[in-house]
């Protein structure tokens, strides 16, 4: 368990207030979401229940996001995406744009896991826009990195490289060396896939330097493994061996048995390339013992297969055959068809070498059938990837068309909103003029008693004009034309709002001030302030959120 998790658990033990505990539970859920997702989920669920009881929407949203991340690690994608969407809705409700972007980032990762690449890229594109507008570089870097992962999985390496380099540039600017190291590793992988091994090697050297400086043992161990592959490709086996031995020592120090056994298999392969079969056999046997001890059947199958194949190559067929059969059984138990297929070929050859041609022929047939199945699976995978790339490209074209259409609609809406505001201001000015006219008429009636009777009739017409609904109906007609069902949706979503409060909401949406609204509705300024307070309360808006800005966004 990492020191960070231990520290958070210590904070939780010391916390006494419910709201403080809920926030710490969220931190604990997120910290465990990648390493112990089931435990993290339990903490996040407790945080969500506490926050809901406290009516703390922001903490509840963070808890739902943490739950989504735990489910995503467990490959439970449907509940993960539903929880991420719920969290996003709560962040939207409270005007937390960065929280909303974080949820979209999670949706992108989850949709990627589901194989829904267009949805994943759409979510990440929206997340990047939010993070950029909110000036949140860490969020933007994370969204770029996740975008790179999707393009990498699709085999669209130039797009993946561009996204990873964007993330790298941002994290370098932030001085976040740990994330810089991660980004550099991703960039190195893409250059390797593109065939630019030299540039890939240089990036791995940079990643190693950063990992050493940060004393990141996992980072050092894995990067040395990558560097060993570069030396092996160049034929520099001694340098490759040195890198792997250092990586092995690190994983042994950390007691990371799974990585230790994997490195031992690679060391054995290097010894074989250097014509050192005894040393190779020893490494494979140690790897097999470690893998068996921790129940890692995939690595165990690989180690057993390497032992059997090594005996086969040395014409030690009576030793090779039982080990190869054992490797096949382990591979079948772990559903590792690739190792099973390769091992059956070696077994068939060893059986033929000792004269057991019938079983050799049967085993070779099994090998060929499995090889055909694997080839068919690879073909289907290639077709699926090509279809996914096509879907992504089509979605990107459609997104660009939609962007241009939305841009046109936004420009049209902006123009209509200006016209609507102008209409409202004209009505306000008309009412202001009528109120002044009434006041002047009242004063004139006082100064000229003989004309008072005639002036009173005129004043009644002014008052009726002020109190009538004609102005509101004219404004509402234009408002409905532009904003369609806004008032109806407000009435449905917030049924406690009164008719006057709905009018105030509509006028706030077009950015009228309190005084202007009071004038247009012919009520006092104090009444408008009272209505605004009541609206906020009925909508459960947090104090720091602007009512007008919130309504403008609906």
Known CATH architecture of one domain: Alpha Horseshoe
What best-fitting shape do the alpha-carbon axes yield?
elongated
Tell me, rounded to a whole number, the average pLDDT. 86
Distance between the termini: 45 Å
Q: Helix count, per DSSP?
A: 26
The CATH superfamily name of one domain is Tetratricopeptide repeat domain
Give a count of the beta strands, DSSP E runs of length 2 or more. 0
CATH class of one domain: Mainly Alpha
Helix content: over 70%
> What share of residues are in beta strands?
under 5%
Largest sheet: none
Secondary-structure element sequence? HHHHHHHHHHHHHHHHHHHHHHHHHH
Describe the structure in your own words:
- It is a single chain.
- The chain has 554 residues and is an all-alpha fold.
- Among the domains are: 135 residues, Alpha Horseshoe (Serine Threonine Protein Phosphatase 5, Tetratricopeptide repeat), CATH 1.25.40; 129 residues, no CATH class.
- It has 26 helices and no strands.
- The longest helix is centred in the last third of the chain and has 91 residues.
- The radius of gyration is 35 Å and the shape is elongated.
- The two termini are 45 Å apart.
- The mean pLDDT is 86.
List keywords for this structure.
554 residues, mainly alpha, Serine Threonine Protein Phosphatase 5, Tetratricopeptide repeat, 26 helices, elongated
């Amino acid at each position: 368990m990492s020191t960070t998790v231990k520290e958070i658990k210590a904070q939780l033990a010391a916390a006494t207030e419910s709201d403080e505990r809920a926030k710490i539970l969220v931190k604990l859920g997120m910290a465990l979401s990648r390493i112990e997702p089931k435990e993290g989920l339990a903490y996040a669920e407790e945080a969500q229940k506490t926050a809901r009881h406290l009516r703390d929407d922001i903490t509840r949203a963070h808890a739902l996001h943490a739950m989504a991340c735990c489910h995503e690690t467990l490959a439970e994608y449907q509940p993960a995406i539903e929880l991420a969407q719920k969290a996003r809705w709560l962040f939207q409700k409270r005007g937390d744009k960065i929280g909303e972007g974080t949820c979209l980032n999670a949706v992108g990762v989850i949709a990627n896991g589901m194989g829904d690449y267009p949805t994943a890229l759409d979510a990440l594109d929206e997340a990047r826009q939010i993070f950029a507008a909110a000036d949140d570089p860490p969020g933007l870097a994370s969204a770029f990195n996740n975008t790179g992962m999707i393009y990498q999985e699709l085999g669209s390496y130039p797009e993946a490289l561009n996204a990873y380099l964007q993330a790298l540039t941002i994290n370098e600017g932030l001085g976040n060396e740990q994330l810089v190291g991660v980004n550099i590793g991703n960039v190195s992988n893409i250059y390797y896939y593109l065939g630019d091994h030299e540039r890939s090697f240089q990036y791995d050297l940079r990643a190693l330097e950063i990992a050493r400086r940060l004393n990141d043992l996992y980072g050092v161990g894995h990067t040395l493994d990558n560097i060993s592959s570069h030396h092996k490709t160049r034929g520099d086996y001694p340098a490759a061996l040195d890198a792997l031995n250092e990586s092995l020592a690190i994983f042994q120090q950390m007691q990371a048995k799974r990585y230790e056994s994997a490195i031992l298999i690679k060391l054995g392969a290097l010894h074989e390339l250097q014509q050192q079969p005894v040393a190779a056999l020893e490494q494979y046997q140690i790897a097999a013992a470690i893998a068996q001890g921790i129940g890692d059947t995939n690595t165990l199958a690989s180690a057993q297969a390497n032992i059997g194949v090594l005996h086969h190559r040395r014409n030690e067929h009576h030793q090779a055959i039982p080990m190869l059969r054992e490797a096949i059984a382990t591979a079948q138990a772990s559903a590792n068809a690739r190792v099973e297929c390769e091992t059956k070929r070696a077994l068939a050859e060893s059986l033929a070498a000792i004269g057991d041609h019938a079983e050799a022929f049967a085993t070779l047939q099994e090998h060929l059938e499995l090889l055909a199945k694997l080839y068919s699976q690879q073909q289907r995978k290639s077709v699926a990837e090509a279809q996914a790339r096509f879907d992504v490209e089509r979605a990107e074209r459609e997104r660009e068309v939609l962007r241009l259409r939305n841009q046109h609609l936004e420009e049209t809406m902006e123009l209509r909103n200006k016209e609507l505001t102008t209409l409202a201001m004209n009505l306000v000015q008309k009412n202001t003029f009528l109120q002044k006219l009434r006041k002047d008429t009242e004063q004139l009636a006082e100064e000229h008693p003989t004309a008072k009777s005639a002036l009173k009739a005129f004043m009644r017409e002014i008052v009726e004009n002020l109190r009538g609904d004609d102005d509101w109906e004219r404004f509402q007609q234009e408002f409905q034309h532009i904003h369609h069902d806004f008032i109806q949706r407000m009435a449905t979503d917030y049924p406690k709002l009164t008719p006057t409060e709905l009018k105030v909401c509509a006028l706030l949406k077009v950015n009228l001030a309190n005084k202007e609204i009071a004038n247009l509705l012919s009520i006092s300024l104090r009444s408008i302030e009272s209505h605004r307070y009541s609206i906020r309360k009925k909508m459960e808006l947090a104090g720091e959120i602007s009512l007008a800005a919130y309504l403008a966004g609906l």
